[in-house]
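Good morning C.,

I know you're traveling, so I'll keep this short. The sequence:
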Amino acid sequence: MEDFTLTGFVAATFTPMKENGDVNYDAVDDYCQFLHDDGITQVYVNGSTGEGPSLTIEERMRLTECWVKAGRREGRLTRIIIQVGGACLTDSMAMARHAESLGVDAISTLPPLYFPVSSTRDLVDHCRKIAAEAPTTPMYYYHIPCRSGVHLSMPGFLEAARAEIPTLRGVKFSDKDLVEMCACLRTLDNRGRPFNVLFGCDEQVMSALVLGADGAIGSTYNFLSGLNRRLVALLDKGDVTGARAEQYRSQDVVKEMFKFGAKTNGILSTLKAAMSLVGMDLGPPRPPMRSLETEDQEAFFKALTDLGFLGWRK
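The tokens, ready to paste straight into the viewer:
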């Protein structure tokens, strides 16, 4: 745990669903193989993309078991991170214990949902109690203020938490304030190392990487892993123009997802539709989100095809 660091691209996994809304656990193994074949070997399970807040604790624990079993088979996954946060602290603590018992590589937690904390002190206390249930597993805070309603300073949180949460290794930074992200990168953990920062806004990842983000966790890495690897390779060669072109392609895809997702209470419908377009049908999202109507899905697929998505996604 002392030297644990996440780098590169981590796919925030979807939760496979049946048409009746039940979790399709049997699909996880094929999904894991799909990601492995696409060059993705790191996953972030039960986050926003995975509809974690819409799942029961039992469903989330079983999904964790499925991903560990699938990922460890033939070494298909090198990193498995489990998001344990939610509305109930007791449930989060139980999921942290469960995740550590399965030997996951790291856990992550949201702030408390619905009744949000309003001070750094309260946020540290909340995360400390969860981390204490997985004392040998690195932990990452999941900063997504647009969803959680918690807009506290992340550098301030990291500074306050490092002495009290020895397993705190970094933050999944899902916000577009790149100045604050940089401040997180310049903050040291309890061992004197820079905190490990993973960026969570896929359409802005080039900027984050240039500024020093260690890697990224996001939805689109499920089906745009090749594009983003090219982006990094171009940056490494100093080809900013080429890297920018790849980022623009990603932005065009995300724009269409938000456009059509506005009709379905969120973009999970379009994200999952994109997965079906590339050959991995993971079913519908769970209410209150809903699937695209047939004509909207056809229009969405046409929009992606017109962009050349199927030709340059890999």
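Safe travels,
E.
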